[in-house]
Amino acid sequence: MMKINRLGLAVVGTLTLLYSCKKDDDGGRIEVRDPVEVEAENDSDIRDYLSTHFYNYEEFEAAASGELEDFDYKIVIDSIGGENSDKIPLIDQVKDTVIPIEIGEDEPLDHKMYYLVARQGDQEAPEKTDSALVRYKGFRLNDAVFDRSNVPVWFDLNNVVQGFSEFMPYLKSGGEIIVDEEDGTYLYSGNYGVGLVFMPAALGYYTGQGSIPSYSPIAFSIELFRVREGEAEE
């Protein structure tokens, strides 16, 4: 399991180090790019993805109304086209927020993050200084999964990529978790929060990580079960 902690630039919360080269996994050099150009390209790529894909919102709606039973509340994303040509694209369902990122001594550069709450939890939402018990899947815009956890794991929201941390306060926790003592599997019920977040590279892994190329936008689907209060930094 990849640690979704802050790496590279996100560790210090600025893009100051964007101007230095970094070796990639093959020993090569990563191209140094203009952050303004990267931001614009990332936003265009994310919007293209959101315009051409939809999620299984009809199942979420049917489950909420009681028409669909035994739904697992898993977000499933598919392309719009063919028999799915009449589906509502994600671009019409997500919300967005602008997050300024410092670039050296220049004025902060605004980066747009897109998010969706597919189901809201019935308990509290976390602060960025809290810890959260989540299941998650991280994927690129080609739908390749780079990380996931099928069982709940705790994350300190002070120590995750910035886009993950920025999204979590929009999602509320909730639900129940029961461990089957016979086979050790987890059973989930109740209203825990389920959502999606799409972020530009500057809010994720700017110079790449593992199978994620440098300057690549990424996304996470997240299920939030519990919140543990943390201490705010002075």
Q: What this model shows, in words?
A:
There is one protein chain. This protein has 234 residues and is of the alpha+beta class. 14% of the residues lie in helices and 31% in strands. A 6-stranded antiparallel sheet has the order 3-4-9-10-5-6. Strands 1-2 form a two-stranded antiparallel sheet. It has one domain: Chitinase A, domain 3, CATH 3.10.50.40. A hairpin with a 4-residue loop joins strand 5 and strand 6. The chain is built from 3 helices and 10 strands. About 8% of the residues have low confidence.
- Report the CATH topology name: Chitinase A, domain 3
CATH architectural grouping: Roll
Biggest β-sheet strands, sense, barrel = 6 strands, antiparallel
User: Which strand order spans the largest sheet, edge to edge or round the barrel?
Assistant: 3-4-9-10-5-6
Order of helices and strands: HEHEEEEEHEEEE
Poorly predicted runs: 5-23
Distance between the termini: 32 Å
The CATH class name reads: Alpha Beta
Number of helices: 3
DSSP strand tally: 10
Average pLDDT works out at 86
Helix content: 10-25%
Question: What is the strand and helix layout of this fold?
Answer:
Elements: H1 35-52, E1 53-55, H2 57-65, E2 77-79, E3 95-101, E4 109-119, E5 131-140, E6 145-156, H3 162-167, E7 176-179, E8 186-189, E9 193-199, E10 218-228
Antiparallel strand pairs: 1-2, 3-4, 4-9, 5-6, 5-10, 7-8, 9-10
